[in-house]
């Protein structure tokens, strides 16, 4: 019985842990695991990475806000202009446009992560960084905002 109560308590804490945050600080792995482009418009970089043009409709964007609010955030009660729908794996890196690669990113978060994306994609274009490594670094940065400046410095040194 004690184990059941403890399990229920842990579950309650995990369900309400987002309630303290109005918006996600990073993508939730269960909602936004990240996907790569599967219907490319072209191929880029020396590695020949499939590239999808930006194509996310309004309903898909709204669905991302709804999905994140269902796990405890309050994005839909905040000004829409404070958010963008972010491609977890950026398009320039070969990311896809499907919902599993999208999340509502607050302006305080993208102010930190946005400089990382072009730095990584530039190195991919130069052939100095493989897609798999770039994806790992973007995921690391979006999960650990405090590490972004160091990641950018490391990438710029390539």
User: How would you classify the helix and strand content by structural class?
Assistant: mainly alpha
**Strands of the biggest beta sheet: in what spatial order?**
1-2
The helix tally amounts to 6
CA radius of gyration: 17 Å
The number of domains is 1
What is the H/E order? HEEHEEHHHH
Strand content: 5-15%
Helix content: 40-55%
Mean pLDDT: 90
Beta strand count: 4
Shape call: globular
> CA-to-CA gap between the ends?
56 Å
The unreliable regions are 1-19
Largest sheet: 2 strands, antiparallel
List the keywords.
disordered N terminus; mainly alpha; two-stranded antiparallel sheet; single chain
Written account of the structure:
The chain has about 160 residues and is mostly helical. The chain has one domain (about 20-155). The chain has helices at about 1-15, 60-70, 105-115, 115-125, 130-145, 150-155, and strands at about 40-45, 50, 85, 100-105. A two-stranded antiparallel ribbon has the order 1-2. Strand 1 (about 40-45) and strand 2 (about 50) form a beta hairpin. The protein is globular and about 45 Å long. It starts with a helix and ends with a helix.
């Amino acid at each position: 019985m004690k184990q059941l109560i403890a399990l229920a308590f842990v579950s309650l804490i995990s369900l309400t842990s987002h309630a303290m945050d109005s918006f996600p600080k990073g993508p939730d792995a269960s909602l936004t695991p990240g996907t790569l482009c599967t219907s490319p418009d072209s191929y880029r970089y020396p590695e020949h990475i499939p590239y999808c043009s930006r194509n996310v409709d309004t309903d898909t964007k709204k669905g991302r806000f709804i999905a994140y609010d269902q796990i405890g955030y309050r994005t839909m009660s905040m000004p829409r202009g404070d958010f963008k729908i972010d491609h977890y794996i950026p398009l320039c890196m070969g990311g896809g446009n499907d919902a599993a690669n999208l999340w509502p990113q607050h302006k305080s978060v993208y102010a930190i992560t946005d400089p990382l994306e072009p730095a990584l994609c530039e190195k991919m274009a130069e052939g100095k960084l493989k897609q798999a490594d770039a994806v790992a670094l973007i995921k690391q940065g979006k999960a650990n905002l405090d590490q972004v400046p160091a990641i950018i410095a490391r990438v710029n040194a390539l």
